[in-house]
């Protein structure tokens, strides 16, 4: 099934749209709070389509993502019971969120950095940080470092890889996509 390749081709089309930067910022912000699709799916094709703007796109993605993370933090801090908890229950994320809470207790601010860089759903950690009343400044700093590391790495790979990277990425995107899904399932099974 070539679902990730189809999404990649769609993202390349969207990357050339005149409002692509707005879409990228919106996707980056909402992914940090609720949306399941990571901004990398737009950042990578945009950096490939316009390599001269790769660093600008990485900066935009980082800033919007951290701002979204701050919003998720505030949701967790102030509106967990009336807003977040019903959503977690509706989506069936109770066990996953309980795991996130255990990680916060065990690893503290480091878990925010790891979640910001890795394919682990960052949104769970933004809301979790607010719920656990983590200190705000360390949360923002860890988010900024983790998110910037990830998005500048993606933009840099696209910048230096060019058209050759674009075709290579298209050829392996389904393997990468399904591999990430499988890794997420294994991690959930092992640590859940």
From TrEMBL:
It comes from the Bacteria. The keyword Repressor does not apply. Residues 39-159 form the VTT domain. The chain crosses the membrane at residues 57-80, 100-122, 134-160, 172-191. Keywords: Membrane, Transmembrane, Transmembrane helix. One of its GO terms (cellular component) is plasma membrane. This is DedA family protein.
